[in-house]
Amino acid sequence: MSSKKAKTRNEASSSRGVVGGESIVADCGRNISTCGYCKSPTSSSISHGLWTESLTVNDYQALLDRGWRRSGCFLYKPEMDKTCCPSYTIRLKASAFVPSKEQQRVRRRLERFLDGELDLKPMERTEDQDVSFSGQVSESVRKTLREQKNEVEPVMKYLSEQIDNAVQRCIQNGEFPSNIQIPKASVKKVVSAKRKKLAEGSEELLYTSNIAFPIAAAVKHTQTSHKGERNNNVEESRVSPETVSEKLLTAVNKAGESTGFSVKVCKGHINFFSATQVTSSDRDEGESFSATTTKSSSNNLHLRKRKLEMHLKRSSFDSEEYELYRRYQLRVHDDKPESISETSYKRFLVDTPLIEVLSSRDGDDGKVPPCGFGSFHQQYRVDDRLIAVGVIDILPKCLSSKYLFWDPDYASLSLGNYSALQEIDWVKQNQAHCSTLEYYYLGYYIHSCNKMRYKAAYRPSELLCPLRYQWVPFEVAKPLLDKKPYSVLSNITKASLSSSSSSSLRQASEHEDMKQGDANGDEEMCNSDEDSDSDSSRNCSDITNITISLDGRRLRYKDLPRINNPAVRKQLESMLVNYRKVVGAELSERMVYELR
After folding, report:
1. Annotated domain spans of the chain
2. How many CB atoms within 10 Å of residue 529?
């Protein structure tokens, strides 16, 4: 069935506010291939596959919670105890998320870029391109920066010039002596450790200048040198750094030129804050000013605000998105041009089996978010230029992140990390519309692959136990994974959760080994070729209630016409037993098994 037909069927099957349609899957069995993570020369990656063009969001949510993922309309699940790089489903509860310092820096870096304060570096090729990003500025800015011999940020040079201009205006107005000898203004970046010393409540304090101190000293020196001459235009008593900084701020305000920052004075320092954080009360007091576009007459450096927009749209082919994807694959992953096509792109990131669920106009408080459920593309645009696309699934319990591709010119903005933070925020915001929507799924976590360990930085995260499908806190699972790549995470005991001693962890690991041996024995019993009606295997391989699609009809296996050929019957029963094992008893009876 074509994707167009599947989409039409999905739309017809959906009803507002109600999950409609049915899940129909075809079992593709075991798949063995080479591994893209450990780069093993042998075919060591082992997984189980299902093909589907119709899947309800509830059923896909249940599959996620059993370790499945999708690529287009293909569903796959690693055989964890056999594959070379065991892949654990990882998630976090959005409301409990605590951003790290590095994640906070990612937000601030992008905000500085949008405020025009940050020039971005070209992308440098590294081994870990999964979590690095780059940016683009105008050619005039690039030319100016290339001409600069020092490493002073353009924004600091620009702000220094604005202060120097204010000093000259104060001299012309007679507020400072005309024969004063003072150094050029210097603006420095404020490190986080010094922010509270320079200004109270200054989390967004970015730059500062102490030029008022040498000016005050120079004014006093000039006045002392001319004791017998009184300059009627200069008030001798007002030469403290505090008064000098206030005069400079007033001079800048009167000039009508803006810096793109909120500027305040504190204890003689001239401080530059992020304009996006300025409150309305600050503006009303007349102590700050901001603008979206500024220009330095001496170096033609433009500092302008940029506009970031995010658009959430249903998964569909978009030629602009495809061109961005093509550039991303060529420059970031070094794909060959002939390996990239519209067909492969659609199959990977556009086609989806998920049946759309729309939000009801009558109100679905606590049931469905305003965008509904299904597959989406989240576009990120700066000044209407498409810079990144996040491919996501929105399900009853979670937002599942599938893939992100971005403009290689914006590599230093860390758009992968930024998009993850935005998606976590989205879950928090939309939980008010859908009470069950609590989690953010980051895909697979592979402890044995260093490039994948960054996902554990989103805390507090949980890993899915590959045997009992229970969620285990990452910090609890980590000691087991440090010991070996594959572990039955749920075997960790409650006693070990409350104890941090090495002996407790060692005992827990030994206990895990013993139980894992028993569990493997149980799995072998489930895979035995015994008759499905025997008492010994009934609990593991009861296939009687599996729904099968046969010639357009839906029949339980127990209601199928008797298959006279013993070999065919045995083969079908073996397939259904394996199918029931990989999807679980409940899903095997809820989804439709399509015979091919």
Report:
1. 154-304, 535-594
2. 10
